[in-house]
Amino acid sequence: MYLLLFQVPDPAPYTAKLYQVSDKKTLVGSNGTLSIAEVAVHKDSLNHTDVFLLDKGDQLFVWIGKDASKEEKSKGGDFGLKYLYDHNHPNKRLTVSRIVDGNEPNDFWAALK
Q1: pLDDT per residue as tens digits for the range 84-102
Q2: How far apart (Å, rounded) are the C-alpha atoms in residues 86 and 103?
Q3: Angstrom distance (rounded) from CA 82 to CA 31
Q4: Which domains, and CATH codes, for the chain?
Q5: In the sheet that 95-100 helps form, which strands lie side by side, from edge to edge?
Q6: Pairing state between β 95-100 and 59-64
Q7: pLDDT tens digits, 98-108
Q8: Got the DSSP string for 74-97?
């Protein structure tokens, strides 16, 4: 009888992603309807007039800008979550946290460069 032992490598760390959800025509590819675009994972990418989705792999922060439109506020999180599922996100059991501009937890800021 032989016993073979294999060391399973640790999975590669997940690289955080940041998405901007906007109904403004200034968003690349937007025609004034709700659109989503990946932006740099950096605090300077945030603006107060849109919704942003910070995907950490195991957690999704839905950041609501204080001056976001009613549509962005009401549909931004659902729109973004659907986008992640439609594009085969590796984790189908994300913890989703809705946070409001000005009330961010420390782990939100820690994920942004």
Answers
A1: 778 777 777 778 889 999 9
A2: 29
A3: 20
A4: 17-111 (3.40.20.10)
A5: 35-39, 17-22, 51-55, 59-64, 95-100
A6: parallel
A7: 999 999 999 99
A8: HHHHHHHHHHHHHTT-S-SS-EEE
